[in-house]
Amino acid sequence: MFDLCVIGGGIYGCGVAQAAAANGLSVLLVEKEELASGTSSQSTKLIHGGLRYLEQGRLKLVYEALAEREILLRIAPGLVERVWVHIPVYASSRRSRAWVGAGLALYWLLSAGRSPMRGFAPERSPVPALRREGLRWVWAYTDASTDDARLVSAVAENARRFGCEIRTHCALERAEAHKGRWKIALGDGSCVEARVLVNAAGAWIPEVAWRIAPAPPSPPVRLVQGSHLWLERPMEAFVYLESLDGRVMFVRPWRGRTLVGTTETEFSG
User: Fold this and answer.
1) Which of 52, 54, 82, 128 has minimal Cβ neighbours within 10 Å of its Cβ?
2) What is the CATH number of domain 2-41+149-213?
């Protein structure tokens, strides 16, 4: 009998398992593939406060994310590190130099001064690869970067140290509530019991929910597909760009190549 059974081995599932195990609960985590095999290894490799959310007025969200960023920088210095991010402002940009600067100043305030900013005239741009035609200014600020898959593995290993049992290549077949506990059939042929069941399957939450009886109440899940491009030519600096339609994207060096993204589109399937 486990206190908690977690379905899903991404950052959310591993984080829940670690926190529960650290607080003395007996925990089983099951993952149908490898740990971090889904979204948790396909990100832009950032630990950030969400600069773009400032335009939406979501100050509390940004404040909380920046606080969590600082915690990760403190407790996982080998996995999370500060990086300078550069924002070029062109004559054609929808966001002016003053507007971007004001946003970065607010970001700095919400981070309690831990996201310093700088400004550069075009002739002193620290990013030689930027197109110079129409370039009016280059802002720079600090955020944090991580190897997302390694971070998940580290959280999972910490959960193990606290006694969590982790089974990979082991899908949930069926879970049924019975007399205050869950009877859980797993893909490895075993059956276990748990007092609490957590569905942390990410984009596969609806699929997992179909295997749970009675069906748990849950809000509709909106699936968004984030796409990245890998370019063979390495970029020398981290750049935050504005696209022609006003959306923003990151262009960043990563392991000798350049990662571009992310674009977000609604997904069904």
Assistant:
1) 128
2) 3.50.50.60
CATH 3.40.50.300 corresponds to the domain 46-146+223-266: no
What letters, b where the CB count within 10 A reaches 16 and e where it falls short, cover 86-109? bbbbbeebebebeebbebbeebbe
Distance CA 255, CA 127 (A): 18
Residue 20 in tokens: 């529960």
Residue 40 to residue 152: CA distance in whole angstroms:
7
pTM: 0.90
Burial class, 161, CB count within 10 angstroms (exposed 0-12 / middle 13-18 / buried 19+): exposed
pLDDT at 247: 77
pLDDT at 199 over 70: yes
> The tokens 């082991």 sit on which residue?
170
Common-topology check for domains 2-41+149-213 and 46-146+223-266: no
Domain ranges of the chain: 2-41+149-213, 46-146+223-266
